[in-house]
# Entry
Amino acid sequence: MPFSRLLIGAALTIASVSIARADEEAQQPNSADAPAAIEKVTVVGTRNPRSAQTYPGQVDVLNQDQIEAAIPSTVSDLVKDMPNVDFGGGPRRTGESPSIRGLGGQDVLVLIDGVRQSWTSGHDGRFFLDPDLLVGVEVVKGPASALYGSGALGGVMAFRTANASDLLDPGADVGLRATLGYQDVNNEFLRGLTGFTHQGDFDVIANVARRTSGDIKLGSGFDLQADDDVVTGFAKVGYSAGEEFAAQLSYQGFRNDAVEPDNGQGVSTGTPFDKTISMDQFSGHFSWKPASASFVNLNFVPYHVDGSVNEVDTASGEALLRDIETTGFSIDNRTPFQFGSLKALLTIGGEWYQDEQVGHDSASSGGVRSGVPNGEDAFWGIFGQIEATVERPLGAPGKLMIIPGIRYDSFEASSTGYPDKEETAVSPKIAATYQPADWFFVFGNMGKAFRAPGINELYLTGTHFSLPHPCYLFNLPSCPGGLPDVVNSFVPNPSLEPETSKYWEAGAGFSFDNVVTADDRVRVKGSYWQQNVDDFINLAVTAAPSSQCFFPPYLPCNFGTATANNVDAELSGTEIEARYDSDRWLVTVGYGTVDGKERGTNFDVTGLPADRFTTSVTLKLPEVDGRIGARMEIGSDYAKNYNPVTSDPSTEVRDGYTTFDVFASWLPDDDILNGALRGLRVDVGVENVGDTDYERTFEGVSEPGRNFKTLVSYTVQFR
# Structure
């Protein structure tokens, strides 16, 4: 489309600065003997830097040090300590898909450097990203449609890749960083190289990495078929003219040549497919803040993302393709103002994007691929938000922060041969934190959210799965020859309604300093939340053969249908996080629960996580420039009953589990060998020490077993 091409051209010609600096103010010194961590900062929660502790909601923030200490193989390794944040889809990296508070798929908005990720698939992951690229992760839990529109019904998961300024030491202009990693659970090797420099007004960084791995050893003793060869990289060129103008142009690429079953999720087996999974992201980031106009603080982010999965059946040669292109932009402006004791920041903005999907099957009539309809959708929205802080509200002690906001969205979807789908939505919110004393605060938020039905939900067609005719499968008497397979068929539902949600959350927190020793800190925060979802989009699978399958004359028959439908759901849960941090110790605790019912019934909502408790203890050893620690995770027993009309199977039972991890880091400073090892970092760990057989979420497959892993990086810098 002409507008799409114009927008892509803008992304390549209009430079800009990244607004997704979600954890920049929360970076810890890259040193094993660093003091207690400074306060974490959320940007994604309000689109502006704000304390994560007193933010009126639940948000988790990871910085570069925490990311490297996790020795991550996939992004899912980074969220294990976050209450009510999970990755489903099984252990294969190609199938992992995030969920927040029991809502997954398209109900979780994924941002990479501020760019919306629209990739959707029934049996592939939600996005493809290697953690070697990351220096920041932020997860906002709960609906965020008032700022981000469709897709944020469950929350937002945002990732930030490095700029040169993240890696350069003071006084250095040029740096080079080499990374090597290994884990034995899938015989995985990582090799990475990053170069970065700051020259005058220009900032440049480039990274390339390769990760190869094989079958995954599960806690059950089974080896899960997986063979990955992943090549990733990014490049950024930035320019800044003081504080008034900054610009950046960036590219990110992901390629995975995998050999695995067609369905990358769960325990799926069968004929292996040669898969080529790719993701290319082009984006610009533009910032303008003229000194002569305090009401202007403008950010503009144009982008284009192209994702595809090409699969070839190694036995038959059948070739399958799914390609999704997303083109869009976001723009916003911040204006500060003050009335007496009230200080406020007004943020207004807008967004436009469109997705185009193409599917192809070389073995089907006309090349049509089952379950991958050709189609497109388009969205536009405008929003406004005020962040207001009042000292001594109505004469009461302390301060009150109030954040009202509202967004209007319009969307349309189309696919040849079906009626177009057009809808609008209004998403208001109000959130507040009252802090009567420095050590205590209460908070709450409430509002409405929505999620538009996707192309793959509205226009599903073709075969879901097929089985041999029961006449042959059960060796029934007098079977005639030539009976076709029984097929479970997708049925489109163009009248599918958008999901809408009314929600509220209330909680409290404590902040104490100098509790046991000088400069130590205690942070505690917890909440209870409820979310009522109207027209929750659910894939209803009726896997039942028709009657003529089993009786003479044994006619061709079907094996039921699969269609997206709407149900009403009620979800609720709790989250508690606590942290003690001192020069010697770091102790963290997390606990999360999620419950969900189909409204007005006793049937549970599918896909919920088990109640989970995590804790970790880290001993800091500045005497040897190191630290060691241990982590424990406890998952509860799980038993759910689902609506038998729309779910097969209708029950789910999983045993509880307890796992242990151990880890250590070494970051030698100038006191070791006269500084000869400065720039070296070594992280080692053992996950699932007891080789426990367990499942975090239902996928019909165990989690990985005992896993020895290490990550070594070395950075040199000079002028």
